[in-house]
Each structure stands twice: as structure tokens, then as C-alpha cells.
Design a protein that fits this description.
This protein is an alpha+beta fold and 63 residues long. Helix content is 19%, strand content 35%.
Length: 63
């Protein structure tokens, strides 16, 4: 995604127990990457199913 925050070899992160979200610069600061981490029990999912992965992140992010 475009680097709308103007991050220069840096990132911004927010965390609380069992979840972290962040965005950081990439490709010589012309792009930004986002990440989502969350704690959970073992997940049973198909790593090739992007829709399923999005639903997992959406559900976990809403807690």
C-alpha cells in the first residue's frame, strides 16, 4: 500500500495483551506494509484460502 504516513525506515505499532497491529515502511519508503499478530489456540485453516485468513483476522481484530 502507499506510504501515506510518510514513514522513513520506521514503523508505528499498537499492542495490547494478545494482539499487535502495525505499519512500517518498505521499498525505499515508497510503500508501507501492515501486520497483525494475535494470540490464540491452535487454528485449523487452509493456508491457501485467503478469504478464510481475512475472516480470521477480522474476527480476532474485533475482540
Amino acid at each position: 500500500m502507499p506510504n501515506h504516513l510518510g514513514l522513513d525506515r520506521a514503523g508505528r505499532f499498537y499492542n495490547e495483551p494478545n494482539r499487535t497491529v502495525g505499519v512500517y515502511s518498505a521499498k525505499d519508503n515508497t510503500e508501507a506494509k501492515a501486520l497483525f499478530w494475535f494470540g490464540s489456540d491452535r487454528l485449523d485453516y487452509d493456508h491457501r484460502d485467503v478469504g478464510q485468513q481475512r475472516r480470521i483476522v477480522t474476527c480476532r481484530g474485533a475482540r
